[in-house]
Amino acid sequence: MKSINYTLLLFFLSSITFLHAQIIPGANMENWTTHQLFETPPPFQTTNLQSFILGTDYSVTQVSGVSGSAARLETIQGGGDIIPGLLVLGELSDDLGGGIPISSSPDSIRVSLKYDIPAGDAGIIVAVFSKEGNINGVAQYEIIGTQSSFEQVTFDVPPIIGVPDSIQFIIFSTNPDDPVVGGYVEIDDIILIGTTDVIPNGDFEIWESVEYEKVDNFSSFNPFQALFDLKPMATQTTDAYAGNSAVRIENVEIIDFDNNDLDTLGFIYSGDFFSDYSAFGLDATPQIFSGWYKYAPVDDDSALIFLEFTKYDSSLGYSETVAEFAFYLGEANDYTSFEFPLSFTETPDSFSLGISSGNFESNDEYVPLGSVLHIDELSFDFIEGTRVPIFSDALEIYPNPASDFVFIKMDKKVGTPKSIQLTDAMGRVVQFSDIESLEYGNDLLRIDIKNYPTGMYYYKVETEDSVYAGKVMVQK
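The structure corresponding to this sequence follows.
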């Protein structure tokens, strides 16, 4: 990335129609982070995906067992939903039957259990035996009450019609028909008695971490791709216009919840998955949106950029859309610049951004797999006279990183401050103070940051004539 002295830049651009400022978080596509979704004990499937979607604690976790590890299944609240702790050996679907291969019928099943089930509720263990896809036997055990340490439990397998060729093993931490929050079951050492068949990883010693990579400040379907071990739709590439990296977006395959293969458009969008804060804050009104791209479409595909600008209505208690824009990008073998004009009838205070490697607005169900879009160096141009923050060495901040307080030392030429605003990496305002409430003296401003979690924050100091900005790392 080029280093720019914005104070000099503003001086030279004082007679030009637009002032340039890149305020789109992560717009240079340089910063990428690897995130862990959750751990899972293969080949079991869990309800952790549902927990992830609802943004709550995971319902199935690794704990200490009889010897080594065990699985803990807990019934939790996820928004307005109750998520049972669930382990399934076999297909996770509404249809029972089918699972892993076996060659004989067990006499009984032994497990080690530890649990605390609320009154009136019950955990459930079910073993479903099938032959050629048809159910020919079911064994079930009900878990009630409390057991504070692991104990072995054995339950019989009723007579099975014929020799089964597969078993599906299911454990619930609550009654799935009437779930109750708060109960848990810890399970270890699943053993089939009277047969040489075994439950793979029935001792829960093997756990795999489901991880995915994403560009900071943007999200995609990469978490779901990682869950199903599929090719990610948004990846980091060194084939960049500027700096060390860009984002590469591709139309790829995904699997739906019925295990059907689907072709889907690759995309990234502002914010985090299912977050209430998917928009970036705006301090000024942009008039041009620009950036650099390369695009290799399949068939007649086209890439699409979507911008939604919103404004908070205090009387309604939520933000309303004030403008929407959709821009198409055609084939480009080399990095090519784009500039799209923006116009508003109302002044926005935030925006959301989505970028797709295919045409989201097409009515054609056909998705051209393999269309690839590279995006780098996104920015806004602002109307002259708009108070755009100046990133200037006239302000010095220390310590940086900091944990409790930071001090901003201001050169006398910037004038007396009127207010200071602190935002997080998502553009959310976390602190605003006017001059009367600021600790200010000897050209020093003191900002209290002790209640903020670790992360990058941006400060903006407004004076009579200008707005000055910078960033500080909070590190606990």
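The first strand starts at residue 18 and ends at 21.
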